């Protein structure tokens, strides 16, 4: 289901813009954060008549299968869609939520469990928003990052529709919506045109175009230089720094050549580099470098003028890599 279809049903039942805004706010933010109105006096009768059915359909978009709390304060949620497919969301410390945008993913990053099975289906924009609705029933959420299963650029219309709703009726500050992508020309064209402009995270992972193509085999062929140029342009237009994501893989992208490449590409940019030591997965042959090595690299980059943060991926102790809970539930994972 898409948000446009919900709007259409509301309008056909006589909703004026004020009713539509109120009902979408009630859905996305919940009754506690929405000003109470008496439906009898506020909503036209045909609208009141269709509401129970519509609300039931929205409530059924996602069902919580299991929740896995972690020592770092995050909580991984395994969610079932109406057709039985499963996705993951992660409640992050400090009122954040990481949402999925697809079931599976076509990019096929070699270090990612989700990428192994390819794309299964797109999520509708309502299924993306429903992850926030369900998360808010568990705790407060004021930031949404599109970094879960899937490549948002491959489901661009639905993701942008969800972003528009979250940044208006959903009550999330635009800077606290983070669109995360491997980089796609369509993203750089569409994002600046939106009424709600999210912050942007670009998955870089290597400054060497050939190695990056090996690691992200079906990402659009933009060179690291092109990516950074487009990112810088968006950062200057929006006045939000770009977040460059770098999954640190031992012996692959943690050496001297990449270090110098990062300094060359990112020094002086309006950007933050997030170094994220890889969360090793039994079924895949990649390892994480030691924390000391990662910390030394972050410090050295900082000294050379690249604003760098060393980050843990959330929920390390509970199958923390993207797609692992789903893989385990679906029997895709060995061990
Ligand atoms: Fe897709 Fe992200 Fe996994 Fe790459 S890391 S395969 S883009 S879900």
Automatic annotation (TrEMBL):
Gene3D superfamilies: Aldolase class I (3.20.20.70). One of its GO terms (molecular function) is RNA methyltransferase activity. Signal peptide: none annotated. Its cofactor is [4Fe-4S] cluster. It comes from the Bacteria. Keywords: 4Fe-4S, Cytoplasm, Disulfide bond, Iron, Iron-sulfur, Metal-binding, Methyltransferase, S-adenosyl-L-methionine, Transferase. NCBIfam families: PRK14464.1. PANTHER family: 23S RRNA METHYLTRANSFERASE, RADICAL SAM CORE DOMAIN-CONTAINING PROTEIN. This is 23S rRNA (Adenine2503-C2)-methyltransferase. It comes from Solimonas aquatica.
